[in-house]
Amino acid sequence: MSSELSRPAERRPAGRVASATPSRTVWAMDLIEALRTTGAVRDFLPEPVSDDVVYRLLDTARFAPNGGNRQAWQVVVVQDPATKLALRDLYLPGWYEYLPQMEAGLTPFAAVTDREAEAQAIARAPEIAARAADAPPGFAERFHESPVLLVLLANLRYLATVDRDLGRYTLVGGASIYPFAWNILLAAHEEGLGGVITTMPILREPGVKALLDVPDHVAVAGVLALGYPVKRATRLTRNPVESFATVDRYDGPEFTG
Predict the structure, then answer these.
(1) How many domains is the chain built from?
(2) How do residues 58-77 score in pLDDT, each as one tens digit?
(3) What pTM did the predictor assign?
(4) Nearest alpha-carbon partner for 219 in 146, 161, 142
């Protein structure tokens, strides 16, 4: 092995330019900068994203941490325009149910919520859909126009869901799937792309699975929409550490470092 290959990887300075393709400049960035600036992007330029770039994203993302290294993820790269449109049509009903819950001050589809208030809000979905039809299309209505749509699936046979029998909403299995999705978004940022993961189509999961021929033992974990961004967020807003970290107990003193 050459000394070049055995040498530890050097830390690349933020903002250093790396050429990924002849036609586009890609910015190599510091890891901390990437973590602090990889925000959700929903507005994309009409420029296509090559299969080579998408392959690189997946090739990088596959090193995500996951339980037992079972790598339970599967990705369907949706390229057929008719399939993309059908996926959009499965997205929209849930989105129109989501919005009135927001307007009612609810966390949409929360595991712990006022189900009566939720049902009353969801009943307004046709009203929201009609309102949307008279307004300029947003991300949901243009979902099928996203240059890249990746349907993220999870093989339930390979997920150690240790909270399966606790009698509450099960959460643990996602720990072996969503780091992979986050890696895709980080790799996309590095490539000059932007994107977002949405779980909205899961509200119509049977339709999504039928559309993509997904077997019964595989679940839909989300859809990633990617493309070259119209505008990239450079500063994200999040709650401070003191708002969510405590010492020794849930109701313990704030952890202040």
Answers:
(1) 1
(2) 999 999 999 999 999 999 99
(3) 0.87
(4) 161
